[in-house]
Amino acid sequence: MNYARFLTAVSAARKPSPIRMLTEIQQRSPPSMISLAAGAPNPNTFPFQSCSIQVKNGDMLTFDETMMKRALQYSSSSGIPELLTWMKNLQKNLHNPPTANYSAEKGQMDMCVTTGSQEGLCKVFEMLVNPGDNVLLDAPTYSGTLAALQPLGCNLINVPSDQHGMIPGGLKEVLSRWDPADVHKPHSTVPRVLYTIPNGGNPTGASMTTQRKREVYELARQYDLLIIEDDPYYFLQFDKPWAPTFLSMDVDGRIIRTDSFSKILSSGLRIGFVTGPKPLVDRVVLHIQASTMHTSTFTQLMVSQLLHGWGQEGFLNHIDGVIEFYRTQRDAMLSSADKWLKDVAEWHSPAAGMFLWIKVKGVADTQKLIMEKAMEKEVLLVPGGVFMINSSDPCSYVRAAFSLSTPQQIDEVKKHTHTHTCKCSHTYTHTHTNTLEGNKCTFSFFLHRLSRGSLHSSRNLCEEYIR
Ligand SMILES: Cc1ncc(COP(=O)(O)O)c(C=O)c1O
User: What DSSP state is assigned to residue 239?
Assistant: First the structure.
């Protein structure tokens, strides 16, 4: 692939930072090397000495003084080597990318660490999207993507999608506006970039089928498109085997994949990864050199120690536990939706992720309903419009996340047996025997408030519930 043709002028103009290069050389050097080169501060002056972090399984992550000095110091822009190596092995085992053994110029799979996948996405967009470019995506889509793309002045073109993700026939039709023969002509307006969320889409909960991925990949080959596979919910797929990824099909080196640890290890540590052809990952790293310099060394070391301690098996066991939690949450949300919203709304059961995408029947636009009426009733949902290319277009959907019934709520609820009679004369009784029941109550309660909220005094409900 000719990767140069995809780069924006800004990205193409990026040069390696000589100081950052020296930092990397210094970090690979033996301790006998005397360096007067780096402008790194002396960690002996830092106030922190050591730390240990208790892992829930009883393990300890320990940073002795030497490790602490490293954790507090500048590090490589692509990520600390031991975390990168661990992740590369995981990617190879999970996705078996055809590009793993390609030469660098041919698009060999490479990776870098980013400060959450959001940083990766933002930098990938800046690398590839010029003002006026046509960019393909399937909206409704992640509002963080729209926030990163729209200021670049590109023309976002919507590709039809449903609960199984982007529809290849729809993509084909959109692309039929152009002739594949024109792709490489100067000033061609043929799109060069396609973005999609393949699993548990935010906000739709949609997951793309393998067949659709294959067809979309073939169209990408025909029109020489790069595909940005934004997959933070990959590890939250409820059913196994997990769907093959675009990365696993990438014979050409045209997939840039973003992964995230936010949903499985911690969102606050801010660890994500860009995986893609080396010539493009190198450009992202040059951007990191000039912006954040690197993701926090401390958090990378912390995560790396955890992962090396666990091994891949331990990591995947942890994921299984996370999946079970979200599956239970999803099922609870679905059963509550069945109970309370059947007459007023439609939805599909998400196969991954943490979102239920609810179409409110008979409401052309949910903005007012959510931002005024639901807020009045102390219910927070996201009106669907914020996920549309044009956020002022009417949208009859709302996004409900099933991730955040707090342990405290669950715990409080499970302690009590309470009967609540609504003023709308709807009576329901809960006997809470375990956390799952507690969760069900949370969702029932929540959706009940949404569906019949106007008949309740929300304050009373709240007090009774929190008790
Ligand atoms: C589809 C999608 N992509 C990317 C992100 C960014 O995740 P993070 O930066 O926390 O890795 C999110 C966060 O919710 C998301 O839903």
Answer: S
Asked whether the predicted pLDDT for residue 149 surpasses 60, the reply is yes
Q: Which atom of ligand 1 is nearest to the CA of 261?
A: 11
pLDDT in tens, 238-277: 999 999 999 999 999 999 999 999 999 999 999 999 999 9
- Indicate if ligand 1 lies below 6 Å from the C-beta of 199: no
Q: Is the CB of 116 under 6 A from ligand 1?
A: yes
pTM, rounded to two decimals: 0.88
Domain 325-425 class in CATH: alpha beta
What 3-state class would DSSP assign to 259?
Answer: strand
Burial class (CB in 10 A: 0-12, 13-18, 19+), 5: exposed
Q: For the chain, give me the number of helices (H) and strands (E)?
A: 15, 17
96-123 in b/e form (b: 16+ CB < 10 A) is ebbbeebeeeebbbbbbbbbbbbbbbbb
- Ligand 1 atom closest to 201 (CA): 1
Question: How is residue 185 written in tokens?
Answer: 């002509």
Query: Could you tell me where the beta strands, DSSP code E, fall in 140-254?
Result: 155-158, 161-162, 165-166, 193-196, 226-230
For the CA atoms of 287, 288, 291, 296, the dihedral, rounded to the nearest 10 degrees, stands at: 170
More confidently predicted of 439 and 181 = 181
pLDDT in tens, 53-67: 999 999 999 999 999
Distance CA 405, CA 328 (A): 12
CA distance 88 to 100: 9
Rounded to whole angstroms, the Cα distance separating 24 from 286 reads 13
pLDDT surpassing 80 at residue 381: yes
